[in-house]
What does this fold into?
Amino acid sequence: MNELMRAVVLTAPGPVSNLEVRDLPIPSPRAGEVLIRVMAFGLNRSELLTRLGFSGDAVTYPRVLGIEATGVVAAAPGGEFRPGQQVVTMMGGMGRTIDGGYAEYTCVPVSQVIGFSSSLPWSVLGAVPEMLQTAHGSLTVGVDARPGQTLLVRGGTSSVGMAAAVLAHRWGLTVIATTRDPGKAESLTRLGVDHVLVDDGHVSDQVRRIIPAGVDGAIELVGTGTLPDTLRATAVHGTVCFTGMLSHQWTVPDFYPIDYLPAGVRLTAYSGDAADLPAEVLQDFLDDVADGRVRLPLGQVFGLDEIRRAHEVMEANQARGKLVVVTRTEDLPR
It folds into this structure.
């Protein structure tokens, strides 16, 4: 009989009460898989959407949620990673078609595991993988950001928005970021955002008062409801990357491109996985955080037994940075 682990199980779509901490068998990895002892995991909006029932028929229940995890290798039958090696994993069906990272152990394909080395606390390391992957991919693949350009981050106080602002500032871009809550403006300026705008649904005029020609690039994290206004804030030959759906508005009804898109403004999208985060990018970012060159947008840290409270904070948009759960109580910040 397999040893047991503690895991957060979503019994069915619905309220936070449907998240239950249960004892489950520790998975047994096969060749081509890696068993990871999860030390921490970040919370993501997609997990909230799954909990609320927006992930469709792809998810069966009960299901261990979690599209990412950070920890150490417990076993790798194929020898691709050594036991004890620090690793992150993300995406690849985690939390949807296979059990995910809301657990003390997770078993995933070796192709979605990235190794690293760091002495940072697990509560910090757990914030990084999916946040960094999405922000980095949105800037590089989506916007093709270059030093000296201007960037609008629509949804700037989301964890991905904050990470994108950190990276863009580090790369020498002028960063404009939005928030619906004026009380969160200071959290953005501390990360290096040059201009913070209070989002009332119409920020394009505010953007063009700062940059009359419009921004070179924009990352849309709110959803399709604000996308037309983000497009209007973007310069001719500029690019808008649709990455997030904080508002739960996913689609554009009756999309007519000539009417919808401003002349010369490009619209693209980004959705990546572990293969889109180079190991050297992850390592360099962690090294910069450790050396104080990069400020990590870390929000509240919870224990595994506090998962319902963590989801309540996420659902109420009360987070001021990445929400993280650590699996060991001794790793909670004191």
Notes: The CA atoms of residues 175 and 194 lie 5 Å apart. DSSP finds ten helices and 16 strands in the chain. The chain has a mean pLDDT of 95.
